[in-house]
Amino acid sequence: MPVHENANPPETDLAPLAEQLIRILALQADGHRKLLDCVRQKRDALRRADIDAIAALCHREHDIARRVGDLEKLRLELVGKVTAKRTPHAAKPMTLTQIAHAVGQPQQRELEALATTLKNAIGEVRRESSVVRAATEALGRHMAGLIQTVNGAISRAGVYERKGRIAASGQTALCVDVSS
Are 86 and 14 in contact (CB under 8 A)? Predict the structure, then answer.
């Protein structure tokens, strides 16, 4: 009895690639959980205006994001390999859902669950990051305002720039009476 190409039964030769993909997706989901934790800690550090903690968290976040990016490259390579095995002349790579259906159970269930977990984690990191970004911008504007106020208080000439701000000169002369 001939096998029909349209039937697309689960392919056992894709199983090792699917296992690698499952491991990578799990590591990516874990990386995004770590990123989310880092972003939340940074939000708290911003709230406290703890510059040292913010700097340390930025470095940690960068390292985690780099590792997640490396995992993403591996994931894309694996998706390319699976696509090449399943449909050699495909115009675009298969989606994780298509790969899950191609490999069948029990890997299908695991791939679908990890894909959903990863998608949700990425969305949450994006939402939290946008909050932190807005808070950082607000803190930056506040600090610029403080600097402007201090410049205005110590400026002798009171010269304004085109934007209506007091010009910050390279040197500001101050006199402090230390005799009393």
Answer: yes
pLDDT of the chain along its 180 residues, tens only?
Answer: 444 444 445 556 888 999 999 999 999 999 999 999 999 999 999 888 888 999 999 999 999 999 999 999 999 999 999 999 888 888 899 888 889 988 888 899 999 999 999 999 999 999 998 888 887 788 778 777 877 777 766 765 556 667 766 666 555 555 556 665
**99 part of a folded domain:** yes
Strand (E) or helix (H) holding 115: helix 107-154
- The 3-state DSSP class for residue 72 equals helix
Taking CA atoms, 22 is separated from 96, 114, 138, in Å, by 10, 7, 40
Does residue 168 belong to any structural domain of this protein? no
The Cβ of residue 17 has, within 10 Å, a number of other Cβ atoms equal to 19
Is 175 part of a structural domain of the chain?
no
CATH number of the CATH domain containing 82 = 1.20.58
Q: Which residues contact 111 (CB under 8 A, 6 or more apart)?
A: 18, 21, 22, 25, 96, 99, 100, 103
**Residue 179 CB coordination number (10 Å):** 4
pTM above 0.85, yes or no: no
